[in-house]
C-alpha cells in the first residue's frame, strides 16, 4: 500500500484551464523501491535484505533511501511532493544513514542517485532509473532533484505543474 503524505486542503486556480481545484487528497507515495517490491517473500527475508520507512537494502548489494520529489504547483506556495525512493552507492547510503538524525546534515554535498520508482500511467517512458541529486535536510525527508534526464517529469519539476496534474498524481492507484 502507498503511504499517504497529507497536505492541508488548498483551493488553487488551475493554470491550464482556470477552474478552481481543491487539493486535499494525499500525495502520491511509494511504499518501497521497485526492485524490493518485485521480490517474493523469501527474497525479502534473505540476509542483508530489509526495507523500513527510510532505508532499504537488497542482498547487501543494492541500497535505497526514501525522500521527496518536489514539484512546484502553479498558483500554490507549497510544493506537491511525491514520496519516492532513490538508489545510492553503498558509501553514500552509509553516510546518509549515519547522518540521518544529525544536525547540520543539510550542509553535506548533494549525493548522486537514481530514481527507484516508476510513476505509472502518466508517462510513456519509465521514470525508474532517472538520475537525481539527493539533498539531506535537518528537519524533513531528503529531497530529490532530477538532473539531465530529458524526461517529462524533470521538466515538470523545473517548470511546475497545474493543480489538475497534482490531483492526477494523487489519484494514481497505490503501489502493490
From TrEMBL:
Pfam family, one: DUF2199
Protein known as: DUF2199 domain-containing protein
Protein's organism: Vulcaniibacterium thermophilum
Amino acid at each position: 500500500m502507498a503511504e499517504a503524505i497529507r497536505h492541508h486542503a488548498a483551493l488553487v486556480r488551475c493554470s491550464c484551464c482556470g477552474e478552481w481545484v481543491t487539493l486535499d487528497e494525499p500525495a502520491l507515495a511509494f511504499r518501497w523501491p521497485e526492485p524490493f517490491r518485485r521480490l517474493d517473500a523469501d527474497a525479502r527475508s534473505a540476509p542483508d535484505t530489509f526495507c523500513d520507512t527510510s532505508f532499504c537494502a537488497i542482498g547487501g548489494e543494492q541500497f535505497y533511501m526514501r525522500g521527496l520529489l518536489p514539484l512546484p504547483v502553479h498558483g500554490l506556495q507549497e510544493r506537491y511532493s511525491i514520496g519516492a525512493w532513490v538508489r545510492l552507492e553503498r558509501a553514500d547510503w552509509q553516510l546518509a544513514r549515519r547522518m540521518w538524525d544529525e544536525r547540520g546534515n543539510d550542509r553535506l554535498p548533494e549525493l548522486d542517485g537514481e530514481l527507484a520508482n516508476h510513476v505509472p500511467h502518466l508517462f510513456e517512458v519509465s521514470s525508474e532509473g532517472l538520475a537525481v541529486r539527493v539533498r539531506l535536510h535537518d528537519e524533513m525527508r531528503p529531497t530529490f532533484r532530477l538532473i539531465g534526464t530529458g524526461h517529462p517529469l524533470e521538466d515538470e519539476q523545473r517548470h511546475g505543474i497545474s493543480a489538475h496534474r497534482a490531483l492526477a498524481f494523487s489519484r494514481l492507484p497505490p503501489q502493490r
